[in-house]
Amino acid sequence: MACSRQAAQTDMRQQFVQKDQGVCKTRTQKGLRKSARLNPECGNHSEHKHPPPVNKTPCREGQLTARQLKSRKRSRGVGTNNTPTDHLRKRPRIFPSVTAKRPGDQGAPSRNRNALFDPIEHWRREQAWPKEYFEPDCEMSHLLARKKSTSSLRRKRSGLSSLKATSNTPSDQKPREEKSAPYQDPRYSILLETKGSYMDKSELDITDSSKRLCRTLLEKEQTVPKDSLFHDDTFDKACRKLQDKNEARVIQDISRLIVPSAETFATFGAKTLDVLVESVNEGWNNSIPVVGPRPQPDYAVGFRRAAFTEDQLSKIKPILGDVMDLSFFMATYYMYFPFLTCEVKCGAAGLDVADRQNAHSMTLSVRAIVELFRLVKREQELHRQILAFSISHDHRTVRIYGHYPVMKGKETTFYRHPIRTFDFTELDGKEKWTA
Predict the structure, then answer these.
(1) Residue 80: its pLDDT value, please?
(2) What is the DSSP secondary-structure string of 80-111?
(3) What is the distance between the alpha carbons of residues 399 and 35, in angstroms, rounded to a whole number?
(4) Distance separating alpha carbons of residues 82 and 283, to the nearest angstrom
(5) pTM
(6) Is the pLDDT score of 235 beyond 50?
(7) Is the per-residue pLDDT at 118 higher than 50?
(8) What is the spatial distance between Cα 146 and Cα 326, in angstroms, rounded to a whole number?
(9) How far apart (Å, rounded) are the C-alpha atoms in residues 294 and 284?
């Protein structure tokens, strides 16, 4: 019984092998298919619905003799039915949204790329900025907002998580002595010059319109508070009490009288000032300094987020970033485009330190406006125009400066214009409200 069953299986196997070999012979005699995607070799059974079992089929590619392989190669080369298949190869698919107008395409001449490409139209269609803006060779790439370093974020989290009452300075602020230490060195002005910022006037001077603006600010009559330490009856006594006092005392008594609070004016009805926001002794942790450390002015004024429409914010989001990012256009996470800083010191030498601090802060402010105008090819409109102001003062002397850029081709340098320097204690306080 077992012998008969084994004989039957042997007969079936032989018949199957003969049938499969016949199929192989038939294929070798036929011409090749014209499609380049089909493999005409015997071993490829992908077009069969029921391919023979691999383990039971002796017709394999490895078992072909050298003569059969040679004849196959010859038949493929000289077959009369063979036709070139180059035209049958797949062509790259062309998407209608990707055209030669994109700056990154190789087909468009480089001199016409920027002229043909409209980033605003790309944003309207794709709801995203062009990828070319994020490439290293893009003119805008250096302006994109940057993520803060891991170490700074770790310090920030530790400061937020600590709820214990302590006399230490918050993590985003430095003690007054520490924050001014780098500016104590007179060589700091030389360091700024290596970055293109000069604590001096330009030989080209400022524009006539900027000169008129300075005269208007100095000559215009200002509203003064009725009851303050600067009142005629108390002014002299208040100034004498500030002699030999520290910076904190000077700030407490007279700093807001020399540089009034913008937000306070808005609170009392100056609606045009509602778009402004101020900071007091707060580090510019969201700024990108020209040179370390980051500024921390005693007082600063800039624009709040509500000063811009949502459409404006969406257009400049790549360069503004989020509240935790670093940006050319932010001072703190809530202050955009700062334009006024004030530093308070004690003594004549202290004012020189205050001037260096203000020079650094205002270089960042002017740089932000220049870079924004450069994005739309209008930076020449800012040439020699005062764009920001700074004030340095102690218990008796005030220095007021205007800060402006000078354009020379693609190179931008920053200068300051001395608007006024005076002693507000002289002549019984005649100039006490000048600032």
Answers:
(1) 45
(2) TT----GGGSPPPP--TTS-TTSTT-SSS-GG
(3) 85
(4) 77
(5) 0.64
(6) yes
(7) yes
(8) 5
(9) 6
